[in-house]
Amino acid sequence: MTTAELERGTPRPAVAGTRTGIVDYLTTTDHKRIGLLYLFTGLGFFLLSGALSLVMRAELTFPDLQFLDESTYNQLFTMHGTGMIFFFASPVVFGLANYFIPLQIGAPDVAFPRLNALTYWLALAGGLIAFSGFLVGGAAAFGWTGYAPLSGAIFSPGNGSNLWIIGLAFAGTSGILGAINFVATIFSMRAPGMSMFRMPVFTWNMLVTSLLIMLTFPVLTGALAMLFIDRTLGGHFFDPAAGGSAILWQHLFWFFGHPEVYILILPFFGVVTEIIPVFSGKPVFGYRGFIFATMLIGVLSYSVWAHHMFATGVVSNLFFAITSLLIAIPTGVKFFNWIATMWRGRVRFQTPMLFCIGFLFMFLIGGLTGPFLASPAIDYDVTDTYFVVAHFHYVLFGGSVFAAFAALYFWLPKMTGRMLNEPLGVTHFWLTLAGMNLTFFPMHLLGLEGMPRRIADYPASHGDWTLLNVIITGGSAILAISVVVLAWNVIASVFMGRGAVAPDDPWGGYSLEWATSSPPPHHNFTSLPPIRSERPVFDARMTAIASRPVGGEPPVPTDPSADQEMVRG
Amino acid sequence: MAEELRFFLRTAAYTAVIGILYWIVSYEWAGSLMLAFVAVATGLVVVVFFLVVRATRGPLTDNGGGTLRRAGLAVARLVGFAEPRGPAGAEPLAAGLEPIPVGSTWPLVAAAAASMIGLGLVYGPWLSLPGVALAAITVWGWITQLDTRR
Fold first, then answer.
1. A188 contacts in B (CB within 8 Å)?
2. Terminal CA-to-CA distance of chain B, rounded, Å?
3. B90 in reach of chain A (CB within 8 A)
């Protein structure tokens, strides 16, 4: 197909060979459509929660502005955190997993398609219910961690808090059902030849993530039920005056909450591990090492929850410091493998790879402040300051969001049949990198200087707090512009059809999703290549090259970059 | 031993060991019980898997063997582990032959019913009671919807 034909090509429907009306999406049980619904819902909540953070940053630009009252500010940071974690990052993880697990293991769908649809609708309902608090006199205002007794009926009256509890319970239930579906799919629907240790690393990471979800989300849902009983039915689970324990909430919440952080990062480790080898022109270095490192992070995450509770003074600091620091080892293995994969590779600096390299640097900064915070002596000093805010934003924005953007540029052509615009993608990357560092790096300094998190104002006389806050707000404005660039790229390239039509394998990929059309047909595959390694599509390409007559034309593109140039024209 | 089994076994072993260590160093109930919960939950999966793997060893049509093997084989058939696997490179499960549901209204209606019940907990039974009725209709519709397979 010539470049001109590619440019003029008509985009195929989101799922090839099927109708794309609204009713079809409302009643769909196709994993690809549900994946798209999850992804775009997640991006919607990203815009909403991001907008809340922009309002917060405007409020904090200078001291004594106070165009927001404290109560409103508290609602904003609560719903920003809740929205980003439960209704942006989780749906994006579930969206990618929904779309690509069946494709990567050569299955026609997930194991329980109707249950899959239910998990999406429950997640959406949960998000809408939690955010509906803004419409009924005020949303929850106790932080996304919902600490008791602040989240009790005395300190947080009003339906907004109850709606937050119900919304999160929906998200939790949805997560458990989705995780069961993924495990069943991976265990029982792999194509012939697809052994466990031939599965792509993304699918492996989703398997570990699914187990984390299955074992920790019930704890959250149980804790939320107890909180709801305390608030509305006169319970005393978290009421010390009546024999309950406020610390119990923290144990329950963080037993879920810390694995939740890994639930939000492990799938993106998988995404990065899919992209880096393809754009380095090399097989992944240490395939089994990646998988065992993921498993080790997964199991260790069960035993680190109370490093969030050092400052309570009632947990075993030694135990949790040791277990938390141990996580640096498998994470280091992953970093070593990513670097070794790129080493002496023919690296192509296209947008997905740029975001992956950005991920490596940004997540490294977030990762390095992790051992600081896992050391009780340092944690006592910086707990509940902006240092902690900087740490987890480097992990979750520099890590998860960068990798999510990488996934978007890498896989959206497969999902929609349209390539995204490369110059706009590169612009988006540099704006995001600059904006993120201007926004979150000064927070380290603010935290070390003692500025507490979750405050709506700060004294003007306090050192250079004002200067740092001005820089942070400026950085967040750049981030907002970067999101506009991304949104325009997606709208123009995909919805307005300006992007080049994506071939089946635009990047020279390795895993099975590149062996089908873009977008795939309803049953995903019309035929599968033999699966004899973790890179079946690469193997098929090599076999085709080896079997072609001497001097003949290659039957498939041999050089991924040449393939890409063909698409770009 | 199948990797699927080892996957759960590692989690069960780690959480059992670390749970005991945690109890020794902290005497704290909540965390110890949660770690025990994880160990027992994953351990249970290992036991069931072990039965299935043992039972499916050998010809699947063979109904002989002890009670344990017959029970395991029944479980294996129930959860789909006893399905024969083709050789590498065979036609995929897809190819338009596998029956896949093409669409269903009931997941959306089920979520609507759940929302009514959930919001009813906040706003009152006037919302949750119709939600329960809708949920009952949904359950009936869902389990009797057999024509979504083509």
1. 79-81, 83
2. 37
3. yes
